[in-house]
Amino acid sequence: NAGVTQTPKFQVLKTGQSMTLQCAQDMNHNSMYWYRQDPGMGLRLIYYSASEGTTDKGEVPNGYNVSRLNKREFSLRLESAAPSQTSVYFCASSERGPAYEQYFGPGTRLTVT
Amino acid sequence: AQSVTQPDIHITVSEGASLELRCNYSYGATPYLFWYVQSPGQGLQLLLKYFSGDTLVQGIKGFEAEFKRSQSSFNLRKPSVHWSDAAEYFCAVNGATNKLIFGTGTLLAVQP
User: B32 and A44 in contact by Cβ < 8 A?
Assistant: First the structure.
């Protein structure tokens, strides 16, 4: 049981390049999330998917797009990377509802030069 | 709107000493409250959560937290800290929106 997996672990991009961060969970969870973590700012929600077929913006969605490919997979795309998107990105999943804990992946460290 | 405040950015304690990490939240009704821990280079792991019932909740690794509605607080405690507890700790609140709001975290250092 792998839990939540993310690829890649590390990535360096030049300004203007695009890339997709992949996330998959094997816990049959309905809800999935993408966060970014920056020093001194905690985790901020970029996008989430309450259930398969739905996606919604979080606190910091600008510059990102997401796709809920199926129940297991939720990808995050940067169409034109900017240095301000240098961050650590975490994917998480949970059962649907506010009482349920979220399970986190190991993160992707992205640097945009 | 929901919000979480962790007033201590960095705390240092001696191994074997007691620990209390502070968390204050803002939410109109009874929130769902969580404490997560993040070891260096890792994702977040749930320590404990509260959503109803007994206001003192027990978690993993010997941690506990107490929900105090009158103070809008959910402080994390441990009676005796171990060197392996050095990590960053995040308090989070989930209200009716089904979205977790995290505090900015408290970095715990443990002195031998």
Answer: no
Report yes or no: B48 and B34 within 8 Å, Cβ to Cβ: yes
| Token pair 């300004």: residue | A15
Rounded to a whole number of angstroms, the distance between the first and last alpha carbons of chain A is 36
Nearest neighbour of A98 by CB, restricted to B32, B102, B103? B32
Q: Are A6 and A92 in contact (CB under 8 A)?
A: no
Contact indicator for A5, A92 with CB cutoff of 8 Å: no
Q: How far apart are CA B7 and CA B92, in angstroms?
A: 14
> Is A48 in a helix, a strand, or coil?
strand
Q: What is the pLDDT of residues B90-109, one digit of tens each?
A: 999 987 677 889 999 999 99
> Around Cβ A55, how many Cβ atoms within 10 Å?
17
pLDDT digits (tens, 9 = 90+) for A97-108: 888 899 999 999
CA distance B76 to B21: 5
Residue B83 parent element (H or E): none
CA A56 to chain centre: 12
Contact yes or no for A40 and B51 at CB 8 A = no
The closest CB to that of A97, out of B43, B90, B98, belongs to B98
